[in-house]
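> forwarded from #structure-qc
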């Protein structure tokens, strides 16, 4: 009985930190197919220079990064012309049509809001380490991207407000996907 209880505790602890990527409008990275996304978004209005599909909604331009549903690639995306209905959405990028402040996006609260001053130092440190911050430009032209690979969400902001919001698979989901799928190409080719 003690062995079973210990095994159950270890099993539960192993998955206590597991978080699924955030979904947007029912579209989930590494779970939603291109065909399912098109049912939600309609037909693309254009493509970017890499062939990614761009959709238009009332509030956003939505860009989908597509990947094969049968294998994985460390680098590279599938253009819309090469996509199959079974291709998976790897990332969702929202570009607001009208600039809004960070506070107007509730999904970004986990990534952006500081922890209370009386927080446990370990929690604060873990939170700082889980966010990846990259800034470029200077002065009026400065822009920063903040992403959290444990939560699967990020954003780019500027003085004008939020420029892009990114929904992507968490590190754990990506690792699980790679474990269950073969590489699309043999390495070294």
């Amino acid at each position: 009985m003690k062995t079973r209880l210990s095994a159950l505790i270890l099993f539960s602890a192993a998955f206590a930190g597991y978080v699924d990527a955030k979904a947007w409008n029912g579209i989930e990275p590494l779970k939603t197919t291109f065909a399912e996304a098109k049912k939600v978004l309609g037909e693309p209005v254009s493509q970017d220079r890499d062939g990614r599909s761009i959709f238009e909604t009332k509030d956003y331009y939505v860009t989908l990064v597509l990947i094969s549903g049968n294998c994985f690639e460390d680098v590279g995306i599938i253009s819309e012309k090469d996509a199959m209905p079974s291709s998976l959405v790897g990332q969702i990028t929202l570009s607001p049509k009208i600039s809004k402040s960070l506070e107007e996006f509730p999904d970004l609260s986990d990534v952006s809001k500081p922890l209370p001053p009386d927080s446990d130092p370990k929690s604060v440190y873990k939170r700082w380490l889980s966010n990846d911050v990259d800034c470029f430009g200077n002065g009026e032209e400065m822009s920063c991207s903040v992403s959290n690979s444990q939560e699967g969400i990020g954003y780019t902001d500027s003085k004008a407000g939020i420029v892009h919001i990114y929904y992507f698979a968490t590190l754990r989901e990506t690792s699980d996907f790679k474990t269950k799928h073969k590489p699309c190409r043999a390495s070294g080719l």
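QC bot note: The chain has one domain: 20-183. The longest strand covers residues 88-96.
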